[in-house]
Design brief:
This protein has 126 residues and is mostly helical. The protein is built from 5 helices and 2 strands; from the N terminus they run αββαααα. α1 packs parallel to α5 and α3 packs across α4.
């Protein structure tokens, strides 16, 4: 099935966002602390869902190893504890509430996300 222009923008936004998160976290897994080259790591979501307002939210996104993200379903209990330690208990509660909301990303929003992460990645290269 051919992707729509909006789906292509979504994929590009995710690719840039994911690379930024993995590089921001220096290739260290948020849940087990294993360190690897960021290119071999994943960007894990605490709360999943492409149609939520927190899909691209940086509080919801952290570098994870393949084992934690895929084989241990994101290690959500540890993930939540680490969010609470890093950002406070209220942030974890907020992410959970927001994950139940539905959000459809518009092309304009996705373009802004692409621009944001292109700029952030360029800043990491300096």
């Amino acid at each position: 099935m051919k992707k729509t222009p909006t789906q292509k923008l979504f994929d590009k936004a995710w690719k840039l966002c994911s690379e930024y998160i993995r590089r921001r976290d220096f290739g260290v897994c948020f849940t087990c602390k294993k360190k690897q080259d960021y290119k071999t790591m994943h960007t894990g979501h605490f709360r999943h869902g492409k149609h939520t307002p927190i899909y691209f939210n940086e509080y919801n996104l952290h570098c994870q190893c393949v084992s934690c993200n895929l084989y241990h379903s994101g290690n959500r209990d540890i993930y939540l504890r680490n969010i609470q330690k890093k950002y406070g208990i209220k942030k974890g509660d907020w992410l959970i509430r927001e994950s139940y909301k539905v959000h459809k990303y518009t092309p304009a929003e996705l373009e802004r996300i692409i621009k944001k992460y292109t700029k952030l990645l360029a800043g990491l290269d300096k």
